[in-house]
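Practice problem: predict the structure.
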Amino acid sequence: MNESEIKSGEGMLHKDLVPEHGNAVEKVQATFRQRLRDNRKRLGCSYETFEALTGFSAYTYKAFELGKRAPSVTAVESLAGTLNTSISYLFGDTDDPRPESVHILQEEMIERNIDILREQRGLTQGQLAIKSDISRITMSRILRGRKSPDFRTYVRLASALEVPIGRLFGEEIVVQNEGE
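Answer:
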């Protein structure tokens, strides 16, 4: 199969475009759970005590730590701020727990970053949807800001785009014009 066939998706079966996301998702989830647990313990907090700090119920936070529930992007941002660390650290993109420069994630920026990375790789929305194992409708909704995905979806998107997950949440990606 040549590169133009991959880019066009012609003559390919769905399974040919879908990378193995299972290992990437499991690894990020395990790191995320462990780092949530370690940071809560570092602060010397029980689930109940941590509830007062985060605003999440003890039940919800415990579900995050055990992987029974996936937090939204807003929740991850809030947790990183409360734990005085970075989203990249929580997801395992870096081992440096220091917080990045303080800024509020804007889903619009995340959507734009995904779209820029998609275009840089020569993928259509449909091809990225297939590579990410996300329906085309859901992909369109994500990129138009109509759907806020959970972090498992972001892991699959990052895997399909071949970037660390933190790259989706980082500062806005600068597009360089040719000749610059």
